[in-house]
Amino acid sequence: MIQAGSLDEPDQVTPQNVIYGKAAVRWDHFDPALKVYDLYARFDEQTQTAVAADR
Description:
By secondary structure, this protein is α+β, with helices and mostly antiparallel strands. It is about 20% helix and about 5% strand. The chain has one helix spanning about 45-55; strands at about 15-20, 35. The radius of gyration is 14 Å and the shape is globular.
């Protein structure tokens, strides 16, 4: 996960989803095309395998 605010050129990346949507403030409007997760998105199988290998 990379926070867009930490990038030098945030317009060079495209969001895939919204995490921590449950904690969003009322005025923070998300792109309706993005899936919004209350907390975080589940990792895909490849990422789960890589994370497990690092432990």
